[in-house]
Amino acid sequence: MASSRKKPSPDGLAGLLACWLSRHLPDLAQQVQGRPVHLCVALSGGLDSIVLLDLLARLRTSTQPAFNLSALHVHHGLQPCADDWGLFVQQQCASRNVACAVMRVQVAQDAGKGIEAAARNARYAAFACHAASAGVDAFVLAQHRSDQAETVLHHLLRGNGLAGLAAMPAVRTLPGSSAMLWRPLLTESRATLVAWAEKQGLEWVDDPSNADQRYTRNAIRHAILPVLAGHFPAAEATLARVAAHAGEASALLADLAATDMIPAVQDGWYEPAQLASLPERRQRNALRHWLRQQGMVCEADAFENLWVSLAGLDSESALELSVGGYVLRSYRRRLCVTPASLSTGSSYVLAGVDNAVAAAMAREHGWSLGIVWQWRRGGLPAETLAGGMRVRLRRAGEHLRSNGMGRDFKKLCQQAGVPAWQRALLPSLEIDGRLAAIVGVGVDDMFAAANGWWPGLVWVSAGEG
Question: What is the pTM assigned to this prediction?
Answer without folding.
Answer: 0.72
